[in-house]
Amino acid sequence: MTVPPRILRALLRLYPPRHRRAYGEEMWGAVRYRSRQTGRGFARRARFTLVAGLDLAWNGMRAWVAYTGGVMMQGWAGIRLDGLFVLRTLRKSPWYAVTAVVVLAGAVAVNAVVLGFVRGTLLHEAPYEDPASVMVVWGSNTRDGQLRDVISGPNYIEMVREARTLSAMAAFHHDDTYLTGGASPEVTQSLEVTADFFDVLGVRPLLGREFQVADRTSSAPATVLLSYAFWRDRFDSDPEALGRSLSIEGEPRTIIGVLPEAFEFIAPATLYTPLRDDILEADERSRIHYHVIGRLAPGASPDDATRELSGIMTRIAREHTGYEGWSVLAEPLHRVAVSAVRPAIWTLGAVVGLVLLIALVNLATLFRMRTVSRAGEISVRMALGAGWTRVARVLSLETLGLALAGALAGLAAAPFLLERVTRMIPVWVAIPDSAVRVPVLRADLDPVVGAFAVGVVLLGAVALSLPGFASAIRGGARARSGRTHRALQGTRVLVGLELALATVLCLGAALTARSAIRLLDTEVGLEDRGLLTLWVGDVWGLEYDDQATYFREIVREVESIPGVTSAGVIDYVDFLAEDDYARVYFLDRSFQPTSSQREEWRRVGEGLFETAGIRVLEGRSFTRRDLDGAPRTAVVNEAFARKHYPDGGALGRFISTHDQAYRDLEIVGVVADVRSLGPAAPPPPMLYVPLQGSPRGTTGMYVRVEGEPMAYADAVRTALWSVDPTQPITGIQPMSDLVGSWVAIPRATSTLISTLAGLALLLATVGVFGVVAYAVRSRTSELGIRLALGASPRRLRRDILAGTLPLVLLGISVGMASGVVAARAARAVLFGVGPADPVSMTMAVAAMTGAALLATYLPSRRVERFDPTEAIRSE
Amino acid sequence: MDTEKHLPLKAAHHLALLLLAQEPTYGVSLMQRLEERSGGSIRLNAGSLYRIIASLVDDGLVEPLEEVANPAGVGAPRKLYAVTDLGRSVLRAEAERQEGLLEMARALDLLGEKR
């Protein structure tokens, strides 16, 4: 059997017709000759088929290029002439040109921005060795509903010893730190890391060395690694900085290395100091304090690690109290970094996809109407001897020119659009089910994204307009009548689709807008307007009494500023995703503990609730007597009271804590819940105790002012430094910014979707307008005759409306049904409204129907200006 | 006749034109002779062969003679391809061009005395 395989015959059919006619049979003869020459044997036949197939395919493509190139390039003169012709016709219908370019530009720009976000976040790859195997290891405190929590030092050490699914593990602690030795203390971010930290990430320092085993013990000399930016700004990129000393919180540390410029981590820092194993091991097991990362051992999966580490945790829970219900969750670091923005990006991606589709359908409609309305001109040109290639060239020159202009305008607009969108997005975002905030990854608008955005839009536009083209050319020589009707039918289907898609978006916009309003309206539990927040003090070294005195003094100084109504201290500022837990013992009448639970607690000073605007619901707030001497009283929030005293009667009960200074405290008040993890998250139960028992050495401060909070920043600084000029002050910002950062993503999502839905509505309206206007024009003679026979313009208008109504109704109904389904899938971005929210649905239907009716009414008014005789003569 | 724009000829085009200048030939036998004459270095398949023929025909260097019945008496009729006057002029111009190059190579003594 030496007959060539059939596939080769099929490949021959792909050649341009002219080439096929001239050489097809002979080529097949040559193929058969080679086939005979090849002989038998599977391997030889296979090789022959492959070689001959590639040869035919490759040369077939070249033949097409030569062929069409020849047609397209019938001399530059021809092209220039056609180009001028295109420009002239476009100048005659500027609205067509402008609409096409604007729609294209919008589609390209929006597409580029969303693709940029997808590339910069979801597709972002951290510069680690094999980044996919770097895991974050969370303690999962399922009983308190905190899926992603920190881990205690001794537990970490046990995990490191026993874990086989992770080849390396490291613990770290992120904090503000003070650079001392300058005029006033300077605050920066530091990361305390165990020696294996950079090994887990697979990152080597740019200069010097990383931490080594020698750095693991407390007796080792104090060392520090610098971030690239810090080294560049502080040491002017001087390699001699290695070995020099840096004073951090009063302790001199030797600089041993500089990290690479591209290094990044979910907890950004400028200074990296060693966290010693012996300190971790000696730490209290109840002090849950450290974040942990690990590198998967070869062959192990995140699930394997979760299972193994949870097993270790279960054993720990059996041997030590306080870990009932704990497990461990290992998840890829990259997933953690984007977890907060992923739903928003997917939703936006889907929405932009819809808008893109609408824009493309709109373009296709536009091109279609354009070619159909030029059918007369085309048939005249063809009758005068223009070949179809010539007509195709004119049409493709026009489309290509518009597409190019649109793409360029879109690419030019993309960076501006991106900047606007970026401004709406917070710098920090909280990881779900945790008290951790990570920096939001940024969009990446590079040439690949730009090319991709343009490519998608142009390919879509070409694919959707080709049928219109082909029919215009094919039918060019034929008569016009009848065809316009068919073209109109096709266009109506496209516009119906457009209406449906726009309805989906309008519903989405209404839903997200309502959910954003719900979020913004949610009471967060304190009065954030007119409230300034800051961190102050580094007085860990002082006796507790002296610390308490210092905090009282700074409050007094700040309150003496004109315009400041009151001030108060709290050891952790709300809405910063900080958490601090106490073990709380619930006592009976004889002060015996009946049960214990881990709960969040805050140490507060005088006037804190009043300053923050946290309402007292039952009992009273702390008074001066509570805040003097050993603490005897406590205040709890509503969530705490509801959780532990479900039948009411929290007042008068007694509790103790793990801390010696807070024993036998009487609950004297119940205050409103502060939704400190954002309005969408349930408020955590909270225990408030007087600060003087065991202050924290540094404290948050709330300052209630009249007017704009930031206007008081300098005065507050001066007042604080008048008490002690060596104390660092950080994080001065209005509380409303902190609260706002929790709703920024939903708000940005809602704004973006609403904007895009507006665009979709506009596009769909333009689409309906175009179809109706075209229908009216193509029915000129019919309408003219009816007018002449005495039909009233009103009646004709009603008929036109009736003709469009089914299309509009069908489009909107299909859109509504798909919209509810889509909203169900995107429920993660909704808050307080269901996917089938009746108000949102009504809003969407109203907007769409209104727009469609307007789009029908405007062109139908043309009927009134009809002159019957003119109308009949026009045909 | 403007021969310049066809120069220089590509190796396969050149050899095919020379072979056709010897005598009008069918496509398949041109394929065989190209392979023989080039010592196996120009082994064309159907696609490449007819791309070359098509480009020579389009450029007016070669023309198909009328179709004749397949010599074996079976299969489709085939065409003999022959060099046109323009084709001959181009071959001559190419030869002159190469002769000039050869002269230069000789002057540089690249070919050696012993040849």
Brief overview:
Chain A has 25 helices and 25 strands. With 875 residues, chain A is of the alpha+beta class.
Descriptive key words:
heterodimer; A: 875 residues; alpha+beta; twelve-stranded mixed sheet; 25 strands; B: 115 residues
Description:
The complex is a heterodimer of chains A (875) and B (115). Helices cover 52% and strands 17% of the residues of chain A. Chain A contains 25 helices and 25 strands. In chain A, strands 1, 2, 3, 4, 5, 6, 7, 8, 9, 10, 11 and 12 form a 12-stranded mixed sheet that branches. The model of chain A is unreliable at 476-481 (pLDDT under 50). With 115 residues, chain B is an alpha+beta fold. Chain B has helices at 11-22, 27-37, 46-58, 85-107; strands spanning 25-26, 62-68, 78-83. In chain B, helix 1 packs across helix 2 (27-37). Chain B is globular and about 50 Å long. Chain B starts with 10 loop residues before the first helix and ends in an 8-residue tail after the last helix. At the A-B interface, helix 2 and helix 3 of A face helix 2 and helix 3 of B.
